[in-house]
Amino acid sequence: MISGVRLVVLGKQGAGKGTQCVRLSHHYVVPHVSTGDMLRSEVKSRSPLGQRAHSLMEQGELIPDEMVMEMVGARLSERDTTGRGFVLDGCPRTTVQAESLDAIVQPFGLDIVINLQVPTNLVMKRLASRRVCVDCGANYSTAAPPLVNWTCDVCGGEVVQRDDDTEEVIERRLNLYEEETAPLLDWYKARDLLAEINGTGSPDAVTRRVVGAIDTLRRKMKGDGA
Ligand code: AMP
């Protein structure tokens, strides 16, 4: 059986993180831990966290670091993730979160941090046409809709445009990405964990590139006697 992985995927909104993380979680047989999906589920269930997060998410603002990291810390201490690992999607988004994650994942640390590189004009196009299932979060687009009348092919849920995929909110989210999240690329580079991957092209092609980068790293580590 393939070994698990302890993977973080970074990239702008619309870079294809959600799609790739689902594929990678199947490939490495580890849970896909998406902070956006977890927060949307808290909002849906109207939990205290969900109620605090709701309006911030609608405006494209970030949820306070300590709230997010408490949620992530709890999820990453469950048995499935401590055992085989995880594909972490949407976190860290700030340096404070990266530091907190560093402490959470000790003693094993992360294997690799992938940055999916996609030009801004392409992510704007992708976000404007993105549609998601309200129940399971499966991703579609106006160019590749579900088979039947905006009903999810996976679970039968309703497929809609996300509240935060409007032009104004997208702009705010992309600005926050540049201010808060982009500096993490240097942070992980300095720790020799970063792999930059071209995120353009078909989903299959991007998955092949990411798996190739992880396999290369593993071979290198084996060669180093790790
Ligand atoms: P996403 O689905 O990853 O684009 O996340 C949707 C929204 O959830 C973001 O615009 C933020 O409001 C919130 N969110 C998700 N992950 C985080 C995080 N790590 N830190 C702060 N806010 C987050």
Describe this structure in words.
- It is a single chain.
- By secondary structure, this protein is α/β, with parallel strands linked by helices.
- 50% of the residues lie in helices and 15% in strands.
- It has 10 helices and 8 strands.
- Helix 1 (17-28) crosses helix 10, helix 2 packs across helix 3 and helix 4 packs parallel to helix 6 (95-104).
- It starts with a strand and ends with a helix.
- 33% of the residues are buried.
- It binds adenosine monophosphate.
- Residues 13, 35-36, 39, 56-57, 60-63, 68, 90-91, 93, 97, 164, 173 line the site of adenosine monophosphate.
Defining traits:
226 residues, alpha/beta, 5-stranded parallel beta sheet, 3-stranded antiparallel beta sheet, globular, binds adenosine monophosphate
Q: How are the strands of the largest sheet arranged?
A: 2-3-1-4-8
Spell out which ligands are present.
Answer: adenosine monophosphate
Which spans have pLDDT < 50 for at least 5 consecutive residues? none
Mean pLDDT: 94
The run of helices and strands is EHEHHHHEHEHEEEHHEH
Oligomerization:
single chain
Radius of gyration, in Å, reads: 17 Å
- How much strand? 15-25%
Number of strand segments: 8
Major sheet: 5 strands, parallel
Shape: globular
Structural class computed from helices and strand pairing: alpha/beta
Percent helix, as a range, is 40-55%
Terminal-residue CA separation = 19 Å
Number of helices: 10
